[in-house]
Amino acid sequence: MHALIVDVAGKVASSLGLEGGHPFQDWPCQFRINRYNYTHDTVGSSGVQIHTDSGFLTVLQEDDCVGGLEVLDPAAGEFVPVDPLPGTFLVNIGDVGAAWSNGRLHTVKHRVQCVAPVPRISIAMFLLAPKDDRVCAPEAFVDAEHPRRFKPFNYDDYRKLRLSTGERAGEALARMAA
Ligand SMILES: O=C(O)CCC(=O)C(=O)O
Ligand SMILES: [Fe+2]
Prior knowledge:
binds 2-oxoglutaric acid, globular, Iron_ascorbate_oxido_reductase, IPNS-like_sf, alpha+beta, 4 helices, Jelly Rolls, Fe2OG dioxygenase domain-containing protein, IPNS-like_FE2OG_OXY, four-stranded antiparallel beta sheet, binds fe (ii) ion
């Protein structure tokens, strides 16, 4: 999973025109298995509230059988179900991805709804942020037409800010605006 997420991140960076050695190999990751003990009583309720992922990017293995993941379409203001597709992973950008790319990548608001009274499992690998460095867009992403949009910030401090304010759906990122 580590090799995969480093590879995907490198390809994302290359797709933005950033060539040369990418630093993602050294960035910390977090691996998490989510289990939702859904019952008849929880159907229709929220399994995970709306949030963005705080890190750079996430590779998610959704439950092959039980759907419920929804992403917000920002233009329409509506949630769109992301139905599981067996044999695939889902990749989404998080807050660090938006800040690091100077806004070229977009952090994705999403949530998980309980759609069936059966246990649901998802497996997530998160590529977080630089190890000993602040989150800061490379110079290649900054020019007169694209001024720096975010103040450089420390990821651990940023995570604490999200926790202490409860701002987990992009609001904390807005506080980092330059
Ligand atoms: O369970 C899922 O499908 C998504 C979970 C999620 O959004 C997360 O762990 O950040
Ligand atoms: Fe998430």
